[in-house]
């Protein structure tokens, strides 16, 4: 018997749709699945690998407050780059195909990422990080395009969960390695980015050119961006980006202020939220069987806000670890909730552009986070910046309870079904 799922007033008959979905979406190859999953680590490692060595870079290259700000912008500048990379990837894929675009993204990722091995000039290091950010967001957006275009609707939440879970797990493996290499010399941590090179070859051999267009996509009517794009999701994406990137920048400095000076020790402490996030991400598809999209969003921002509050008031390492674990659980659901919500409000022919633009907005949260949080941190320390992020997360929770944060689905989009 077919089951009915209701989202935002719309009802989808799940099992009745599955046979049709199977015929419309043939199975994808193992190599394509690996390319999908590689998109997650590309962005998580781009930002998290250098977290443990930020104090070391500052001690080596910063000669004043302006340089200290530039060190923090080694993460913040990536947000600007990610905005550009994510925004253009969808359009480039439509013109040149997944094969060329994804291969170029991973090749640039490997070259720009490993530049820190030999660069000792802060402005040049900043440029290399900018290029790395463009490549990373392009890989992420390409993976999302593959998920939304080549996988059946009922599989997307599960695969977004897998994708985010692999991103978290890769950080569990490589962040401690980055800290260990940073103990010898902070330059050596950048060698890890060379892992992207094999995926440039894999993308070239596994992916097609253009994404096959389905009949319903060919029927998409030309409309101005202002009429079809769900701008509220761009705003939510910016807010979530700020929440993500403030701790990414300031947690290492918080630990440093508590007396933890070793990059390896900092990397191990920061692993707590990553492990928790890995488990939460892998459970996302199952959780969506009983949670609405708004319910999942509320859980995510509540857990993140609660965790950041604990970390912000921490007076010892244990409290920071506990807070980071709750934060990691919440953040693990940020991306899947945001992208599934966006997909449910855009018709099939515009999925790639919508994903790219929303991810661009999400990445804009990175430089905004640094510009907003740095004055707070200078007055109240790193803990003040962490508490500011907690306040924003809890504000989103209140808004989701008292108002219609997501809004109605687009009637022309694929009917939302549970994972």
Automatic annotation (TrEMBL):
It is a multi-pass membrane protein. Residues 32-411 form the Major facilitator superfamily (MFS) profile domain. The keyword Transmembrane helix applies. PROSITE patterns: MFS (PS50850). The chain crosses the membrane at residues 30-50, 70-92, 104-120, 126-147, 159-180, 186-207, 228-253, 265-284, 296-314, 320-342, 379-402. It is found in: Cell membrane. InterPro entries: MFS, MFS_dom, MFS_Efflux_Transporters, MFS_trans_sf. Its main location: membrane. Keywords: Cell membrane, Membrane, Transmembrane, Transmembrane helix. This is Predicted arabinose efflux permease, MFS family. It comes from Novosphingobium panipatense.
């Amino acid at each position: 018997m077919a089951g009915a799922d209701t989202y935002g007033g719309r009802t989808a008959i799940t099992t009745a749709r599955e046979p049709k979905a199977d015929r419309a979406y043939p199975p994808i190859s193992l190599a394509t699945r690996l390319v999908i999953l590689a998109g997650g680590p590309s962005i998580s490692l781009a930002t998290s690998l250098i977290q443990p060595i930020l104090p070391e870079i500052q001690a080596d290259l910063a000669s004043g407050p302006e340089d200290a700000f530039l060190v923090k912008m080694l993460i913040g500048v990536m947000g600007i780059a990610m905005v550009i990379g994510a925004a253009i990837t969808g359009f480039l894929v439509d013109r040149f195909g997944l094969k060329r675009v994804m291969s170029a993204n991973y090749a640039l990722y490997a070259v720009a990422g490993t530049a820190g091995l030999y660069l000792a000039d802060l402005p040049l290091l900043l440029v290399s990080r900018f290029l790395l950010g463009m490549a990373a967001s392009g890989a992420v957006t390409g993976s999302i395009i593959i998920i939304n275009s080549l996988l059946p609707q009922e599989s997307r939440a599960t695969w977004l969960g897998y994708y985010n879970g692999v991103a978290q797990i890769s950080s569990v493996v490589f962040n401690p390695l980055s800290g260990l290499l940073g103990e010898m010399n902070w330059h050596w941590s950048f060698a890890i980015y060379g892992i992207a090179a094999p995926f440039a070859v894999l993308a070239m051999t596994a992916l097609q050119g253009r994404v096959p267009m389905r009949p319903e996509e060919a029927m998409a009517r030309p409309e101005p961006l202002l009429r079809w794009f769900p701008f509220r999701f761009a705003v939510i994406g910016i807010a979530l980006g700020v929440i993500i990137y403030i701790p990414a920048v300031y947690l290492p400095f918080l630990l440093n202020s508590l007396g933890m000076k070793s990059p390896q020790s900092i990397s191990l402490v920061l692993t707590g939220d990553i492990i928790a996030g890995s488990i939460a991400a892998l459970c996302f598809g199952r959780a969506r069987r009983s949670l609405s999209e708004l319910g999942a969003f509320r859980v995510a921002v509540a857990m993140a806000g609660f965790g950041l509050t604990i970390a912000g008031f921490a007076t010892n390492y244990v409290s920071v670890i506990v807070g980071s674990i709750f934060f990691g659980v919440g953040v693990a659901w940020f991306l899947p909730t945001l992208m599934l919500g966006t997909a449910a409000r855009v018709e099939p022919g515009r999925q790639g552009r919508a994903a790219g633009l929303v991810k661009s907005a999400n990445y804009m949260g990175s430089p905004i986070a640094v510009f907003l949080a740095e004055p707070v941190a200078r007055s109240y320390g790193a803990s003040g910046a962490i508490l500011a992020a907690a306040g924003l997360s809890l504000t989103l929770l209140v808004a989701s309870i008292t108002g219609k944060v997501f809004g109605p689905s687009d009637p022309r989009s694929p009917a939302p079904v549970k994972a």
